[in-house]
Amino acid sequence: MDDLTIVSGNETQVKDGLHRLEELVAWTRMKFKAKKSRSVSVRKGKVVARSFQIGGEDIPQVTEQGVKSLGRWYEGKLNDRHRGVQIYEKVVEWLKRVDRTLIPGNAKVWCCQFGLLPRIMWQLQVYEVAVSRVERMQQKMNSYYRKWLGVPRMLTDLAFFCRSGRLQLPMTSVVEEFKAGKVRLVMMMRESKDQVIAGVRPPIRTGRKWRAEEAADEAVAMAKWKEMQGAVQVGRKGVGFHQGVRWYSKQGRKGRRELVVEAVKEKEEEYRFAKAVQQGVQGAWTRWEGVEQRKVSWNDLWSMSSGAVRFMISSTFDVLPSPVNLQRWGIVEDGGCRVCNRAKGSLEHILSACGGLLQAYTWRHNQVLKEMAEVARVAVEARKKNGPPRVRGIRFVKEGVRCSVRKKGQRDDGGGILAAGDDWEVRVDEGNRTVPEEVVVTALRPDMVLVARSVHRLAMVELTVPWETRMDEARERKLDRYAELREECEKRGWRAEVHTVEVGCRGYAGRSVRRWVRGMGIGGRDGERWIRRICGAAETGSAWIVGKAWGGGGNRGV
Q1: Helix, strand, or coil here: 403?
Q2: Residue among 550, 110, 542, 178 at smallest CA distance from 363
Q3: How many CB atoms lie within 10 A of CB 4?
Q4: How far is 497 from 548, CA to CA, in rounded Å?
Q5: What three-state secondary structure class fits 234?
Q6: Burial letters for 510-521: b for 16+ Cβ neighbours within 10 Å, e otherwise?
Q7: What does DSSP assign to residue 304?
Q8: Of 249, 120, 216, 218, the residue nearest 172 (C-alpha)
Q9: Which contiguous run of DSSP H or E holds residue 327?
Q10: I want to staple 66 with a disulfide (CB 3.0 to 4.6 A). Which of 75, 414, 529, 554 is the partner?
Q11: 16: exposed, middle or buried (Cβ count in 10 Å: 0-12, 13-18, 19+)
Q12: For residue 344, what is the DSSP state?
């Protein structure tokens, strides 16, 4: 239908053009098919009935037979007011069809993200649909996401799409992609090589709530402001680190368009984070300090069971059916803990502060300690086999101190905890002494001790599985507890170190976990794999504790 298009201001010119085309095509011994052609006549903004012929046959009108051109349907109504309703109805029908299948919930979410989303995004781009209608589509999809993942209906949509949160799921927001696509279209028209398109700038209607042109102007201004501001150090980046920074003025048309789209997505993320800060319960993760972000890929979702996915999401946003939440939702009258009967049964109390679950906490602690002990044993074996690990990094030199130049092939002494000696021994707290008696006699038992007798080195490792908001407090408490023991070891001629490791009770790694794994000489993919195993042990243990506590466990059932 898009081989040839005739556009004219009056009926006579159209008929003359069709007659001339018919003569030219007849000269080439070909002909037009009237049934595959369409005609439309507009007068004073309204569609009127006018008949045209080609090859002696009447050309069907758009009001009689609709036509699809470049993915867009042209029917009796030339406006797109009803298109948003049609797309919404298709989305609902598609969601119901997926919901009736017998595949797991995480597979249904995957089908929606990679099956439904690409289908409707093109329609949302070619038609003029209001952003409020797209938000209704997103709300409908979110309701099915909650059902398929087994989370409560009151779970905020930030759990699915927030990129700056502690839990990042691999899901895409329809609203965000819709806005990014419309802004991309605005930039393509503004910077088009066709002077007619660049000069006219056809309006892109997206409703009253959000306008693509204004969003594009704001994104361009933000990109220019970042260039004026320069390379700013963020997080743990050193001074002068600005690799990969792209400036707006030095980009081509494609690069400028990408920067503007990124600015629009950043603004959406800022809105989501601001919304999360306002949520007292489900947005409590915004107040976590020293906790690393947990990025979940589709492979992770496929490998996890439905119960594990449900606990991971619900525990992060505190929407598990704890006694306090049940009381808040109006389901029960008493929100007290069923185990100790002395405090409110909040998730924080159940996972980290209930006096009746101390044995369960010890069991969870030991499960995490087993994974850490396995890391230490693997690192010690690698140390004996391969020698001290190489650690790439910056060697800072104090003012007034001369920098020593290493010879070729010489290893850096800062290669982690195990770089000093070759005869490391791993001693884990299993009811026996972990600090050797030849070092010092003490009643304290660190969770794990690494001893190198040949160089008189001692590394004490203390593990804590606290509530995520109390990681810094746990670290300071452990350091104070073993400060005297460290001084006593140094007095006896042993160089002692105290390493604290904090793993959140909901499976979130503190920065100390990565620091300790790297200190053992394990990095890259192997380090990430061990970190996931350590955190997974804490999460699995907490899920078991929750089941025991809500089932009337505690000392009676543990």
Answers
A1: coil
A2: 542
A3: 9
A4: 37
A5: coil
A6: bebbbebbbbbb
A7: S
A8: 120
A9: helix 323-328
A10: 75
A11: exposed
A12: B
Q: Would you call 551 helix, strand, or coil by DSSP?
A: coil
Cα angle: 159, vertex 96, 306; to 5 degrees:
45
Question: Alpha-carbon torsion 100, 102, 105, 106, what sign?
Answer: negative
CA dihedral 47, 51, 52, 56 (to 10 degrees): 160
Tens place of pLDDT per residue across the chain (558 aa) = 457 787 888 888 888 888 888 888 888 888 888 888 888 888 877 777 778 888 778 888 877 777 777 777 777 676 777 888 889 999 999 999 999 999 999 999 999 999 999 989 988 988 889 999 999 999 999 999 999 999 999 999 999 999 988 999 999 999 999 999 999 999 988 888 888 777 777 788 888 899 999 999 999 999 998 888 877 776 666 666 666 778 888 888 899 999 999 999 999 999 999 999 999 899 999 999 889 999 999 999 999 999 999 999 999 999 999 999 999 999 988 888 888 888 899 999 999 999 999 999 999 999 999 999 999 999 999 888 877 665 555 666 777 777 665 544 444 444 678 888 888 899 998 877 888 888 888 888 999 999 998 888 999 999 999 999 999 999 999 999 999 999 999 999 999 999 999 999 999 999 999 999 998 988 889 999 999 999 999 999 999 999 888 764 333 333
Say if residue 86 is exposed, middle or buried (CB neighbours under 10 Å; 0-12, 13-18, 19+): middle
3-state secondary structure at position 154: coil
Structure tokens at 266: 């950043």
In 227-356, beta strands by DSSP E: 294-295
Collapsed DSSP state (helix, strand, coil) of residue 328? helix
pTM of the model: 0.83
Question: How far is the C-alpha of 390 from the C-alpha of 183, rounded, in Å?
Answer: 47
Distance CA(170)–CA(393), nearest Å, equals 32
Report helix angle 131-149 to 174-190, nearest 10.
150
361 residue type, one letter: Y
CA distance from start to end of the chain:
72
- In a 3-state reduction of DSSP, which class is residue 52? coil
Q: Could you tell me the two tokens for 135?
A: 């938000």
Q: Among 162, 470, 163, 538, which Cα is nearest to 289's? A: 470
**Residues with Cβ < 8 Å from 93, sequence gap 6 or more?**
none
The two tokens of residue 546 are 């929750």
Angstrom CA distances, 150 to 57, 175, 308, stand at 60, 23, 10
Tokens of 403: 């920098």
